[in-house]
From TrEMBL:
<comment type="similarity">
    <text>Belongs to the DksA family.</text>
</comment>
<feature type="domain" description="DnaK suppressor protein DksA N-terminal">
    <location>
        <begin position="49"/>
        <end position="119"/>
    </location>
</feature>
<feature type="domain" description="Zinc finger DksA/TraR C4-type">
    <location>
        <begin position="122"/>
        <end position="157"/>
    </location>
</feature>
<dbReference type="GO" id="GO:0005737">
    <property type="term" value="C:cytoplasm"/>
</dbReference>
<dbReference type="InterPro" id="IPR048489">
    <property type="entry name" value="DksA_N"/>
</dbReference>
<protein>
    <recommendedName>
        <fullName>RNA polymerase-binding transcription factor DksA</fullName>
    </recommendedName>
</protein>
<dbReference type="InterPro" id="IPR000962">
    <property type="entry name" value="Znf_DskA_TraR"/>
</dbReference>
<comment type="function">
    <text>Transcription factor that acts by binding directly to the RNA polymerase (RNAP). Required for negative regulation of rRNA expression and positive regulation of several amino acid biosynthesis promoters.</text>
</comment>
<comment type="subunit">
    <text>Interacts directly with the RNA polymerase.</text>
</comment>
<dbReference type="InterPro" id="IPR037187">
    <property type="entry name" value="DnaK_N"/>
</dbReference>
<dbReference type="InterPro" id="IPR020458">
    <property type="entry name" value="Znf_DskA_TraR_CS"/>
</dbReference>
<dbReference type="InterPro" id="IPR012784">
    <property type="entry name" value="DksA_RNA_pol-bd"/>
</dbReference>
<feature type="zinc finger region" description="dksA C4-type">
    <location>
        <begin position="127"/>
        <end position="151"/>
    </location>
</feature>
<dbReference type="Pfam" id="PF01258">
    <property type="entry name" value="zf-dskA_traR"/>
</dbReference>
<feature type="region of interest" description="Disordered">
    <location>
        <begin position="1"/>
        <end position="40"/>
    </location>
</feature>
<keyword id="KW-0863">Zinc-finger</keyword>
<keyword id="KW-0862">Zinc</keyword>
Length: 165
């Protein structure tokens, strides 16, 4: 009967140790001026660039989650019985469009989370196909990009060829 007590103590000890380790791993915050933009003349994916993209992705994710919450509220509010057939059809069409948009947003949030994980692992900004750096302009326009423009075009051409078969 003493073993379960001992296990609980060990589990609590492990939890507090892992918590301490996480705290020790926390990096100091990177100073980033409000007008900062990544530039080609600085080292690629330096701390400031990574922090710039981390913040950009985080703000984008928060906006999408906020919009999703508003969409859900709107769908709950519109879930009423409309007697007119034309009005009901119109409302159903609107609801279907909202749900499709919400699904797209959900997929986008997953891609943002993936990009944030790549920032943490040091893989962000490099093409997953070639390993080459993705241009800063491309990343600024589409921070979830995982391929250089050339690799993306090759990938899309290959997809098109296979789809046409």
């Amino acid at each position: 009967m003493g073993a379960p007590e001992e296990c609980r103590v060990n589990m609590n000890e492990r939890k507090s140790n892992s918590h301490r380790q996480k705290g020790a791993e926390m990096k100091p915050e990177v100073f980033l001026p409000d007008d900062y933009r990544p530039a080609e003349d600085e080292p690629f994916m330096n701390e400031r660039q990574l922090e710039y993209f981390r913040r950009k992705l985080t703000v984008w994710k928060e906006e999408l989650l906020e919009q999703s919450a508003e969409t859900l509220e709107g769908l709950q509010d519109s879930a009423r019985n409309v007697p007119d057939i034309a009005d009901r059809a119109s409302e159903e069409t609107d609801r279907a469009l909202e749900l499709r948009t919400r699904d797209r947003q959900r997929k986008l949030v997953a891609k943002i989370d993936s990009a944030l994980r790549r920032i943490e692992s040091g893989e962000y900004g490099y093409c997953e196909m070639t390993g080459e750096p993705i241009s800063l302009k491309r990343l600024d326009a589409r921070p979830i990009a995982t391929m250089t423009l050339e690799a993306q075009e090759r990938h899309e051409r290959r997809e098109r060829v296979h789809r046409d078969d």
